[in-house]
Design brief:
Helices cover about 20% and strands about 15% of the residues. The chain has one domain: paralog of FGE (formylglycine-generating enzyme), CATH 3.90.1580.10. Strand 6 and strand 7 form a beta hairpin. It is an alpha+beta fold. It is globular.
Length: about 350
């Protein structure tokens, strides 16, 4: 199965259209402003107190425009039934309890937030996509090509999700936010910003639903795909709530799930903390798997994958140090702290 996942990843990478034409109709965005110190960003005390006591229904990370909504504690059925279309054998159904409420990003992390926090001193205007490594922390969908064939004329795609990031890059981003917000005194006791566990991710994605997707007419999605004689995700029903065909600005012209979360299906896949392993039989509370495999889990599928990879239960392992996949990004939670090594 792992070999299949790697072949899938390579195929999706080859289908990437890195730069789209966009006639110049406005000033080009070629710079990123550095974030001011966290403690200098004033937030009303009552807003901070409501978030720190988990009373606020939503919260936006100061300076980074990372909007989050509070999700309740609860129990759900994780995995998929044996008769679900495109089901994989490692999706065994079992009941999972999320014991504490937590906040989750309404959107995938934008390039703007990542660059402002970690790359504000980078010379974006001089950088060209054919120079240097993508591992420098640059998204492949880095700039729109405004002047075809020219060396110049590129702009930052700041509203697109950050991608081409390894698991370590994603954790580094979370740690940088935690350092800022700790200094500013804006973290609930026992909570921090991090990647979601696999269970938290599926719980949030489902938002109380039990089918293949949290939205949409599943029969129509499959019918459209079969009519097109392809398993690609570019059918009308799926496009109403899932980022398809090409990575695009987060949430653009798409519907959120019942808990207000956009792009839980499609656009870019999202890192989870968990190492890959088959599910442990039986019920579980706040499960987290950390083992010796070099593979971490991604969830949600991507614009470059078919509908079967976007299903709520679909889970795929990739190496933690992969940093050149333009279909892998991240979404953050503000949730109970968990202990895990940077690399396993």
């Amino acid at each position: 199965m792992k070999q299949t996942h790697y072949l899938l990843a390579a195929a999706m990478l080859l289908t990437t259209t890195a730069f789209a034409l966009d006639p110049v109709t406005r000033p080009l965005r070629t710079k990123v402003e550095k974030l001011p110190p966290a403690e200098s960003i004033k937030v009303p005390a009552d807003h901070v107190n409501a978030m720190k006591t988990l009373a606020a229904s939503e919260w936006t990370v100061p300076g980074l425009n990372l909007k989050m909504v509070k999700l309740p504690a609860g129990t759900f059925t994780m995995g998929s039934p044996k008769n679900e279309t495109a089901r994989n054998a490692d999706e065994t159904r079992h009941n999972v309890t999320i014991s504490k409420p937590f906040y989750m990003g309404v959107y995938e992390v934008r390039q703007e937030a990542y660059y402002r926090l970690l790359k504000a001193d980078f010379n974006f205007e001089r950088w060209r996509h054919w120079r240097g490594s993508l591992a420098d922390g640059m998204a492949l969908e880095f700039r729109n090509k405004i002047v075809p064939g020219g060396a110049d004329g590129y702009e930052l795609l700041l509203d697109n999700p950050m991608e081409c990031i390894s698991f370590v890059d994603a954790v580094t981003f979370c740690k940088a936010i935690n350092e800022r917000e700790t200094k500013a005194g804006r973290l609930p006791s026992g909570y921090d910003y991090r990647l979601p566990t696999e269970a938290e991710w599926e719980y949030a994605c489902r938002a109380g639903t039990k089918g293949m997707f949290a939205l949409g007419d599943e029969k129509q999605i499959i019918k459209d795909a079969e009519r097109l004689k392809t398993k690609q995700s570019a059918n009308r029903e799926l496009r109403s709530f899932a980022g398809c065909r090409d990575v695009s600005p987060v949430g653009q012209d798409r519907k959120p799930n019942a808990w207000g979360l956009y792009d839980m299906h499609g656009n870019v896949a999202e890192w989870c903390i968990d190492s890959y392993a088959p599910y442990t039989p039986g019920n579980a509370t706040d499960p987290l798997v950390i083992n010796d495999t070099p593979e971490k889990l991604i969830r949600g599928g991507s614009a470059y994958a078919g509908y079967e990879f976007m299903r709520s239960a679909a889970r795929y392992p990739i190496p933690f140090d992969i940093d050149y996949y333009p279909f892998v990004g991240m979404r953050l939670v503000l949730a109970p702290k968990v202990e895990f090594p940077m690399v396993q």
